[in-house]
Amino acid sequence: MTLKVAYVALASAEVAATAHVLEHLLELPKQMLKSDATGEEVPVFSIGQTGLAVFPLGDPLIDGAQRPGVHHLALSAPDLMQAQAWLTERGFVVSQSD
User: Fold this and answer.
1) Radius of gyration, alpha carbons of the chain
2) 17, 41 in Cβ contact below 8 A?
3) CA-to-CA distance for 82 and 88, rounded, in angstroms?
């Protein structure tokens, strides 16, 4: 089974400071994407073929999480149903979004 990390959602108490480190110190490419949930812009950094999105604590896209850190990661696979079965067999809880 070939799975790829599509993106990582990072919860941060200091989005601007986190974004500054990622963009200016680590020199990661950044784009700002508008959140459908809040209308706010979210900084997203490219790390190879993976995105790192930095959300403020309490953002609905991280389920209102109030603790900083990695909230979730999204995987991509050529066959979603096969990937879901493969992960479930290994004890992972899999959720899908539209």
Assistant:
1) 15
2) no
3) 10
Is the pTM above the cut of 0.70?
A: yes
DSSP assignment string, 24-77 = IIS---EEEEE-TTTS-EEEEEEETTEEEEEEETT-GGGTT--S-EEEEEEEE-
Tens-binned pLDDT, residue by residue, of the chain (98 aa):
889 999 999 999 999 999 999 999 999 999 999 988 889 999 999 999 999 999 999 999 999 999 999 999 998 999 989 999 999 999 988 876 65
Distance (Å, rounded) from C-alpha 5 to C-alpha 16? 24
Return all residues near 7 (Cβ < 8 A) that are at least 6 apart: 44, 50, 51, 52, 53, 73, 74
* Residue 83, H or E segment: helix 80-89
